Amino acid sequence: MNPLLAYERTITRRTFLGQSARGIGRMGLAALLFPGLVKRPRGPHFAPKARRIIYLFQSGGPSHVDLFDYKPRQLDLHATELPNSVRGDQRVTGMTVNQASFPVVAPNWPMRRCGKHGTWISDLLPHTQTIADDICIVKSMVTEAINHDPAITFINTGSQQIGHASLGAWLSYGLGSENENLPSYVVLLSQGSGKNPGQPIFARLWGSGYLPSRHQGVLLRPGVNPVLYLKDPPGITRGQRRRMLDDLAAMNQKKAEDVGSPETLARISAYEMAYRMQTAVPELTDFSDEPEEVFDLYGPQSRRAGSYAANCLLARRMIERGVRFVQLFHRGWDQHIALQKQLPAQCLDVDQASAALVKDLKRRGLLDETLVVWGGEFGRTIYSQGTLGHPSSGRDHHGRCFSLWMAGGGIRPGFEYGLTDDYSYNVLENPVHIRDLNATLLHQLGIDHNRLTVKFRGLDHKLTGVEEAHVVHDLLL
Amino acid sequence: MVMSATYRQSSRATPDLLTLDPQNALLARGPRFRLQAEFIRDQALAISGLLVPRLGGPSVRPYQPAGLWKEVSHYGSTPATAQTFAQDHGEKLYRRSLYTYWKRTAPPPGMMVFDAPTREVCTVQRENTNTPLQALVLLNDPQFVEASRAFAARLLRTVPETERITYAFEAVTGREPDSEDQQRLEARLAEEIRVFKADPARARAFLSVGASSSPLLEDLATHAAWTVVASLLFNLSETITRN
Fold first, then answer.
1. A207 with A332, same domain?
2. Could you tell me which of A137, A342, A465, B228 has the fewest CB atoms within 10 Å of its CB?
3. Which residues in chain B touch residue A213, judged by CB atoms under 8 angstroms apart?
């Protein structure tokens, strides 16, 4: 802000105070939380196909082998040794690198052909099976990372090394906010039932890196304080708080005029917005206005605040209010051990609500402009970690190929893309690097990933990094 | 450099100075910036008398909302990896913020809101934002509510009644209140006393925030009312601004 202009505004502060009874009501929350967001977005570069993203991040590495990337021939390959020619020079994690044997484990649960195109989807995901015609499954996702921290940092920030801006922060930076009263990037966390605690996640996954901090994701939490410190201290009434803030505003106003401080004027507005947030945020997170059938659709867990299902419903409520990017992180997909027991529990956590979200958006006419993404940081090996068939056995990390699905937002529905070998191990056709995925997500929101850059440490940084990335046009309508 | 006239001049921006040097490129006035995260908390602890100024020792874990570590952490035997945040007690709640334990996967939220770097990568210059989330911390974080209560108790015990407002204002802002400030705070105090006298249970609830055991004063309403006034002073823009 030009301090001269700001100062002149304080001198004729009626222009500022005259807008409403209290003079503070009209600036939006986003304008205050994230000044500059509303005014000067850098994009879009071209007409977007999607306006919003809901990213259902499955943290830990869901088993593409058991859920999506099925080959009937794997039943014959069960218990045979994975050929060296398939494994090749692969970098294997410390968890299985010393195994003497790498026996193939065929999927443990029945797979079923679903929808008009006969898409294979596991019986562990019965609700996802019902949206086969609405989703696009990419079976040829590729990442170089083999462990969680670098892999999850890579897919969320475009680099295995820390310090880069997250996808949501880039979107906020590039497109600004659609709702002045809510953040443009909101993050919701949930724990997995299959493995709890799951692998750790980090504030950096929704961080702003070298972008201004106002673009970082805002974490909403279950309970009485969805935003930290939202609730007044015990014993203080709303009326008391209001009168104290009135005095605070008056004293700050006087000081601002006295010393010519636009920051102090901004702070007065920030306090008013905090006061308004104290009612606006609980309204967003209060599901009491949702009819019974909505809870039936999302499943019983949707009544439990903080569950994945409740977060899916909350995501829909935020999308309705114009939040640009809602990202869920559901933990617990790291099935090294006891896959037989853990994987069904993980699927039960997410299956119904993920499918419900797609159906709900579709019937409300929101799916066309909302891109839903379901996937993790990598997949899992077809070979057994641990003794074949032992209850404690599982699958190790696998980045050479994994599966992910998308729906809405201009993505081709009822479509499968990419082909892997019989072992669901190496990509045979149409690899989609996670850079390509991120380029494609930006593209759908009207952003050319090569043109959305920021100068930092002598480089023009971008989400897709320095290596070549391509929008995957085959996936688009 | 800090002894120079340029550094020590006032940050007051008069219309003349703004016309001559609108961006302060010529250093026509002193710098004005919001205090850093650690200073804001330390200042409240120091003014309230809660601060434990002892030097050195291991990191400490003052108040933070429950569950923040559990949401993101795996198993672990050290605080760096632990799922469960074990809040410290006693003097460890009131050490300088320099000693606050830093878990990088889930840094202390009250400091992050005031632009403390995550400490994952080097930071050349801290950002200096101005957001509603900062207001919520200063108004509602138990650390600041407790500091207001302790400051109020200190005023009630050690400062004669007629001098309290002047003393409190000066302790927080470094200047004397003018008559308008004085009258406004007196009126606020009188009204809060009235409100809390009508509902002593709420006064007691408000005074229960924080672990420090300053014994409740006989007149709960007066103590609670002064706590509101102290909180108001801690929330003034000039309190958290280096002018």
1. yes
2. A465
3. 115, 127, 129
In this complex, is the C-beta atom of A1 within 8 Å of any C-beta atom belonging to chain B?
Answer: no
Structural domain contains residue B41: no
User: What pLDDT is attached to residue A39?
Assistant: 45
Within 8 A of A212 by CB-CB distance, chain B residues are 127
Is B114 domain-assigned? no
- Report if residue A119 sits inside a domain: yes
Return all residues near A5 (Cβ < 8 A) that are at least 6 apart.
none
**Residue B146 at interface with chain A, using a CB cutoff of 8 Å:** no
Residue A55, domain member (yes or no): yes
Residues A200 and A70 in one domain: yes
Asked if the C-beta of A95 comes within 8 angstroms of chain B's C-beta atoms, the answer is no
| A194 shares its domain with A255 | no
Which of A7, A248, A250 lies closest to B15 in CB terms? A7
Number of domains comprising chain A: 2
Domain count of the fold of chain B: 1
The domain in which residue A262 lies consists of 1-33+234-301
Q: Contact A240/B228, CB-based, under 8 Å?
A: yes
Q: pLDDT tens-digit profile of A182-241?
A: 788 999 999 999 998 889 898 899 998 888 887 889 899 888 789 999 999 999 999 999
> Is B139 contained in some domain?
yes
Q: Which of residues 176-205 of A touch B (CB under 8 A)?
A: 189, 191, 197-204
Any domain includes B94: no
Contact of A206 with A200, CB cutoff 8 Å: no
Q: Do A258 and A352 reside in the same domain of the chain?
A: no
Distance from C-alpha of A235 to C-alpha of A463, rounded to nearest angstrom: 47
Within 8 A of B235 by CB-CB distance, chain A residues are 248, 271
Per-residue pLDDT of A40-66, as tens digits, reads 567 799 999 999 999 999 999 999 999
Q: Are residues A1 and A113 in the same domain?
A: no
On whether the CB atoms of residues A165 and A157 are closer than 8 A, the answer is: yes
Give the angle A449-A450-A451 at the CA atoms, nearest 5°. Answer: 95
Residues counted in chain B: 243
DSSP string, B37-59: HHHHHHHHHHHHT--B-----S-
- What's the predicted TM-score (pTM) here? 0.88
Helical ranges in B97-212 per DSSP H: 109-112, 132-140, 142-158, 164-173, 179-198, 200-206
* Residue A194 falls inside a structural domain: yes
Question: Could you say which residues from 15 to 74 on chain B have a Cβ atom under 8 Å away from some Cβ of chain A?
Answer: 15, 18-19, 22-24, 32, 34, 65, 67, 70-74
B184 with A258: Cβ contact below 8 A: no
Q: How far is residue A364's CA from residue A290's CA, in Å, rounded to a whole number?
A: 14
Q: Which of A250, A270, A301 is a domain's end point?
A: A301
Domain with A201 in it: what CATH number? 3.40.720.10
pLDDT in tens, B24-36: 899 999 888 999 9
B77 touches chain A (CB under 8 A): no
Instruction: Please indicate, yes or no, whether residues A152 and A82 belong to a single structural domain of this protein.
Output: yes
| Sign of torsion over alpha carbons B95, B99, B105, B107 | positive
Asked if A458 is an interface residue toward chain B (Cβ–Cβ < 8 A), one would say no
- Domain span including residue B204: 134-242
Q: Examine residue A40 and state whether it is found in any structural domain, yes or no.
A: no
Q: Which tens digits make up the pLDDT trace of A115-146?
A: 999 999 999 999 999 999 999 999 999 999 99
Q: Does A165 touch chain B (CB under 8 A)?
A: no
Contact (Cβ atoms closer than 8 angstroms) between residue A15 and residue A9: yes
